Amino acid sequence: MNNMSNKSGKVMIGDIAPDFELPDTEMKMHKLSNYRGKNVVLAFYPAAESPVCTVEMCTFRDSLNELQNLNTTVIGVSVDGPFANKIFATNRKLTFPLLSDYKRDVISSYGINMKDLGPLQDYNAAKRSIYILDKTGKVNYLWVSENPLVEPNYNEIKESLKNFS
Prior knowledge:
Elements lengths: L20 E3 L5 E3 L7 E6 L6 H12 L1 H6 L2 E7 L3 H11 L5 E3 L4 H6 L2 E2 L10 E2 L2 E5 L5 E6 L9 H11 L1
Parallel strand pairs: 3-4, 4-5
Antiparallel strand pairs: 1-2, 3-8, 6-7, 8-9
């Protein structure tokens, strides 16, 4: 289950991650392909400032030095707007990019669209998902949760990075 192919999604282990360009909290555009040459933890989260997303992003924040020592950068992606992500980043002292998939194109292309967020029918948020990309942009690890209350296995993510760093 953990690093197996995502049966419901379009992006699989071994694929080159689809490129995208999304705005950060300052409305500056980021292209995924510009991060080639580094490993990338691409962390999709359902909603800024929600309880589980806060724990997840703060865990990545607290592991950032260790991840950077593995030539790895973290990128958070949600459907929240840049302004909501900015409040999230400021409140939680998140220093890695939080990108806004406000059109929901990226979650669709990755096959991780969660149709409803709790009681919010047709909200279309990102499923909590982790993609680890190597320096060439190839997906080497994939974890997608159908339950937005489940956190990823952080130790497994670090071990996966150590295996190809």
